[in-house]
């Protein structure tokens, strides 16, 4: 028995070591561009990662099916970091040793912990819908790319939509219900700055993460009789917020969230009951968009899809496609600038900075990345849940960018001053 | 001060507290027989909710059938867990057994979302969502029903402890060796207490799953349940009722009064502060028995 | 600190009293475990505390060593009032004790258990451990010598490195006695040191107790059930029953007291014994 | 065999009380030390920064916790919070311009002060109740860290560590960072080894085993419990500053949550309570098992074309992590250190198995 157990342990150890080897072998192949998609599948961002990652991988498969870019295949290493820093850093270092040029951690804490590393290592990091909002300032964070409207911009868009709808926000009341984490508190400076400018009344309600119990919050929101409610959370916090709002009889068409709201959330809340709720779209959702159609034809139909077919075209899937399309446009540009490489972080960096008026066949608003603006213009639109899908109710627009950029500059300059 | 709001929060707190109390009930049941705190109780509630969901949605059985089936399955699961894992820890330091339950908690948190999918699942047990007004007071139907069911369950377990089985379990909780000597099957009693704990966790999981959706975050009920169990006294079932209401109201009111002052979500801290204060001021809780150590 | 105490004590010990307890009362809940008990131990004597189970002997010892502060009464040790003093402070005054149901530290070797007995003479802390080579080593080795002396005295040489939990009960009792003696106490309390031993082992322990008194100048309070041992080695005894003193004095006389026989055997059996002895002890 | 105990006799107490009385153990340790010193020149950066560095840091933390849990027998489910306080304290000081060596000590002292508060609970309750009390305190400290802007650093709640110097040497680059962590690890390891053979360690063990018996031989259990919390928290604080400076490089409140505490407790248990070597084993297993497993599954999915759903694949490490804790508690409660000892004992007397004990 003693010996058996020891043998078993030894066997397990050998198997584990064996698994470490092949990754080193793969290093030898050339004509590849390596991305590291280490994301949180298990802990905090479970609600988004699976679909987001599926979109990313399907789009990469699509491009690879079409022969890659510049004769190179895209190799995406997908792994789980579970929001745990040692694991994230290990997979980062491992992938870097293999020549990885881009990492997308899709996690605010991990992105923050990697900032100093990627800046030093000259590896491009995508922080779409996560990470530091001030990373939009490309002059301070040359290797960090949000590539999407950050939370400050999203809040700016929302407030502007409220203003458009009501004509004037003077004397109106906005309730901000948010998860009590840095992510949840992030829009506060913008809300306060815009309050001073537009003259609305602001009331904030923090709830403890992850927000599975908000029963004491919403009676207060109801009593505050708000004109608009913005709820800012993720995963279970979002569905609970909506359910409690419904239970408290708050009008759905006066409620809005950030980009973090999806069909599956609506399934949990109840598709009919949630009718009317608003969210922000950074890209076209659903299956109509051309890239999604192409994926359905070339990747999903032959059975090469990375996940269940019914997830194709969902909200977070679309985000994954959108971000990957932008990244690969960067790769394309990089080949235009330097066709012979060598493929490296700075090489891709130049490409990403050259993205100009890219729309991904109409899937996203025209996006231009410059050395100063890594956000890509800050355009988005508002859409409304109609019981079956999110339908856009505005055009692409951007708003309040002056306030947002003042805030960005404030934090990025502080980082530049003390962080280095 | 908005008294109406306070009243609303207070009522809400009572019912939510009872719902927490149902999770705490399992901790007390297990402590009463085997003298250890089950840190997997939150995960058991999560497992129960997943079980009810799995029977009702993928298998397509009606919910009124799914819940009893889940209860039976979870009772067996609890008893088997005790048989296969906890029983082997007899004679080990208590911290080892506690860590074992923590290990089970982590494992369950991996197993269920791993096999059933990590996304939040809807568990509809037919509670209407339309608001219910009593005068100007809004009552939350989900918590109202959940709290009432929990209250009934806790009362039921009190009755159980006066039955024949209850007498056996009380004897075991009093003195394991002595019960063993008079022919009580101590192991069986402990296994039953685990089964009952898992079953009550299932009811709690279903109720909570119906109000918030089913996902891993149900396992976070643990900390509130611990606060209630410790405040009430780890071996007292009436303590669960009273402490449940206290913790629920304290949390609810803290959210209304403290949050604006601190500018943060104080809800979770309330449970922690209650645990700490109880242990420092009255370690055996409001109704717990004090053990005298013999030298 | 200790030296100062010792000097003070020497000065105050003119009457030769080691321990003087007056009017000790102690109850647990509703149960009165001790009802106004007076006992004293003289210098250099082996004092026996006997009585049936549950008569309050161990409680009395726990009162003396500071575990249960008395509800009423006073405890004087070496002429100093120690009523309500914490056990570790009492130990530092030169009191060592053993326990009825063994209190050795599992997971440690016999040697380490005995070295722990030297605790009151050492200055343990984190820094001597951090700077072991500069600071801790010398102290450790000095005390090791004292421990080895006791190991020789108690004849424990060959089990020195064994973990305490694997050695037989009789030896464990001996190790506990060694741990008490290594502290160089002036007053030793032994709570049933011979419980569960056979005749040979009992004789061994009795010899150690006498040697400890004669060679090491220790006064001893002994709780024991084996009356043969009590009568053989105690100078004076007190018999407790239900928390009250029912007899005291020279051992043979005290245990022959009718009240004592009644307490041990019950009324009817006692009557029979007394009859057999011709109505008189 | 080469691994012999026969024929080794000591004539001085000092020699017998050596940390490693067997020459072979000593040589082995020397070899390990030399390898550790040469690691930056031998290993690929991936292994240095991705494996060795976190291993050293987490093992040091596990040692600190082991002093409390293994040696002194006090359960502590809030060690992550203690480490966090040390990390924040020292990073703030470094940012204010204090030299790292001072900031590290100050971080240790801050943690020790917090640790004493945790310890105060230990004076009232023990065992199960102490576990609950420390758990509650973990949450409270978490809350304080993230809700006091003065500590967490404002709305972004991330503080970057500026470049630092230790005793005048700039801590820049992988090697310097590694040696720094190695140095702290060696000091703590030696301290822990010495604790076991001095009066301090014996007194703590006495408190752990039977506190009333400890009292009666003159151990002030009150004082030694607090001292254990103090020392262990001090180590935690120092580890916290090493963690922040050498590894994380920017700290935010969620890095010191309950997960870290549980991870450390798991390391102590899996490694072996009270065992110094075990802390290293435990840290390695808990830290790397999920990583290795993740790579293993990825490899299997890629090369053998196995269809594993993302959800399942992603949750396997969590199952494994829980499974390890459960498995060790059930089958080898003394942890990996015990398995190592079994093997060592086997070779010590080989081929005379009957002489094993």
Characterization of this structure:
The complex is a heterotetramer of chains A (420), B (295), C (281) and D (357). Chain A has 420 residues and is an alpha/beta fold. Chain A is built from 14 helices and twelve strands. By secondary structure, chain B is an all-alpha fold. Chain B has one domain (24-125, 134-281). In chain B, 71% of the residues lie in helices and 2% in strands. Chain C has two domains: 1-94 and 186-281, 3-Layer(aba) Sandwich (Rossmann fold), CATH 3.40.50; 105-184, no CATH class. In chain C, the strands form two sheets. A six-stranded mixed beta sheet of chain C has the order 6-7-8-3-9-10, sandwiched between helices. Residues 6-14 of chain C have low confidence and may be disordered. The chains are: A alpha/beta (420), B mainly alpha (295), C alpha/beta (281), D mainly alpha (357).
Largest interface: A-D, 55 and 49 residues
Number of strands of chain B: 2
Q: State the secondary-structure class of chain D.
A: mainly alpha
Strand content of chain B: under 5%
CATH architecture assignment of chain D: Orthogonal Bundle
The N- and C-terminal alpha carbons of chain D lie at a distance of 18 Å
Strands side by side in the biggest sheet of chain B: 1-2
The tally of beta strands of chain D, per DSSP, is 4
Number of domains of chain B: 1
| Helix percentage range of chain D | over 70%
Average pLDDT value of chain B?
88
**Given the helix and strand composition of chain B, which structural class is it?**
mainly alpha
How much of the polypeptide of chain D forms β-strand, as a percent range? Answer: under 5%
Principal-axes shape call of chain D:
globular
Sketch the topology of chain B as an H/E string, one letter per element.
HHHHEEHHHHHHH
Radius of gyration of chain D: 21 Å
Overall residue-averaged pLDDT value of chain D: 87
- Stretches of chain B where pLDDT falls below 50 for ≥5 residues? none
Give a short synopsis of this structure:
Chain C has 281 residues and is α/β, with parallel strands linked by helices. Chain C is built from 12 helices and 10 strands. In chain C, helix 4 (110-116) packs parallel to helix 7 and helix 11 crosses helix 12.
What secondary-structure arrangement, pairings included, does this model have?
The complex is a heterotetramer of chains A (420), B (295), C (281) and D (357).
Chain B lengths: L2 H32 L6 H16 L6 H22 L9 H23 L15 E3 L2 E3 L1 H20 L3 H11 L1 H6 L4 H27 L8 H12 L4 H26 L4 H15 L14
Antiparallel strand pairs in B: 1-2
Helix pairs in contact in B: 1-5, 1-6, 1-8, 1-9, 1-10, 2-3, 2-4, 2-8, 2-9, 3-8, 5-8, 5-10, 6-8, 9-10, 9-11, 10-11
Chain C lengths: L1 H11 L4 E12 L2 E12 L3 E5 L6 H9 L6 E6 L2 E2 L5 H6 L2 E3 L12 H7 L9 H5 L1 H22 L15 H13 L5 E5 L7 H18 L2 E5 L3 H7 L2 E6 L2 E6 L1 H5 L2 H8 L1 H10 L5
Parallel strand pairs in C: 3-8, 3-9, 6-7, 7-8
Antiparallel strand pairs in C: 1-2, 1-4, 4-5, 9-10
Helix pairs in contact in C: 4-7, 11-12
Chain D lengths: L12 H4 L6 H20 L2 H27 L7 H17 L4 H25 L3 H20 L1 H4 L6 E2 L4 E2 L2 E2 L2 H24 L2 H11 L1 H6 L4 H28 L1 E2 L6 H14 L4 H28 L6 H22 L3 H15 L8
Antiparallel strand pairs in D: 1-4, 2-3
Helix pairs in contact in D: 3-8, 3-11, 3-12, 3-13, 4-5, 4-6, 4-11, 5-6, 5-11, 8-11, 12-13, 12-15, 13-14, 13-15
